[in-house]
């Protein structure tokens, strides 16, 4: 099977930050879910790479983000093999060529500290998608596990506008429910949830309820189903068939052209059996082919992300 794949979330950069000895380009590297050779073997054409600071860093600084971007260029990007995707043209070139694309994203805008300059610098460095929070609250907004359950602050709302003006896409995956709806009300652009499943099937707080899913669908956003076992099933073992039921559910709400993938590989310590690393996207494809047409499967695996990014990345 040669269906191209686009994966909207992984935490490889966190593992490389934590352990400089890990080698993304070593085919035998056993400490990563996502390696260059696995991406290649699975026909992954574009991988999102999250800048996510470890929880032990209690005072996030902008130069931490710069360290991650440096790691991407030194340890992940490799001439002729993997390159940064910043523009629509880059996207077209990687989809049609031999190289794999890497899209830089930020998960948790804590160290931007409401600075439009820092936001612009990240844009200049190629960051194209930002989740304003991780699970807790910061200057911009509250995340889903923040006990006060607030939404966006005044500064957070101007950040939404800055991102929209620059062309940085916004990610609702970790936002609190109030923040999700603030984003929906404040952002003129479509937004996405890169790694969340359907709460109707699994009640984890990181999953999205039907009203949220319908809003993302109506706004032509994207929903990245994620391979985190406890976001797939509660109280019983997760399976690839169970993951496909989340796709079925989003499709039943009208989202067949909005479903994308956001594996969360290298951000998880439990895996769905058979879907344990980036070399196994074909297992998901096999299961999807039992239920969906060729065009629909291609949509879920890559085309739905492609159409979205093609519309929203800067032309050059
Ligand atoms: Zn996450």
Automatic annotation (TrEMBL):
Pfam families: Peptidase_M19 (PF01244). GO terms for biological process: proteolysis. GO terms for molecular function: metallodipeptidase activity. It comes from the Bacteria. This is Membrane dipeptidase.
């Amino acid at each position: 099977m040669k269906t191209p794949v686009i994966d909207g979330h992984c935490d490889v950069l966190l593992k490389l930050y934590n352990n400089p000895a890990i080698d993304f380009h070593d085919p035998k590297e056993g400490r990563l879910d996502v390696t260059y050779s696995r991406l290649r073997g699975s026909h992954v054409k574009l991988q999102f790479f999250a800048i996510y600071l470890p929880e032990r860093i209690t005072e996030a600084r902008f130069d931490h983000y710069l360290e991650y971007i440096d790691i991407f260029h030194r340890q992940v990007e490799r001439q002729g093999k993997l390159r940064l995707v910043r523009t629509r043209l880059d996207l077209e070139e990687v989809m049609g060529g031999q190289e794999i694309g890497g899209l830089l994203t930020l998960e948790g805008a804590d160290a931007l500290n409401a600075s439009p300059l820092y936001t612009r610098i990240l844009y200049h460095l190629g960051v194209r998608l930002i989740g304003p929070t991780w699970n807790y609250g910061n200057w911009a907004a509250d995340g889903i596990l923040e006990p006060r359950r607030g939404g966006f602050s005044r500064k957070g709302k101007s950040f939404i506008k800055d991102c929209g003006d620059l062309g940085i896409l916004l990610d609702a995956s970790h936002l609190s429910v109030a923040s999700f709806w603030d984003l929906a009300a404040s952002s003129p652009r479509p937004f996405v949830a890169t790694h969340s499943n359907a709460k109707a099937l699994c009640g984890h707080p990181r999953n999205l309820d039907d009203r949220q899913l319908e809003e993302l669908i109506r706004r032509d956003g994207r929903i990245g189903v994620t391979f985190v076992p406890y976001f797939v099933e509660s109280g019983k073992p997760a399976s690839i068939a169970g993951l496909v039921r989340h796709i079925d559910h989003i499709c039943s709400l009208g989202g067949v052209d909005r479903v994308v993938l956001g594996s969360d590989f290298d951000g998880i310590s439990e895996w769905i059996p058979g879907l344990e690393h980036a070399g196994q996207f074909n297992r998901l494809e096999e299961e999807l082919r039992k239920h969906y047409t060729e065009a629909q499967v291609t949509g879920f695996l890559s085309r739905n992300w492609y159409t979205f990014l093609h519309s929203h990345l800067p032309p050059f």
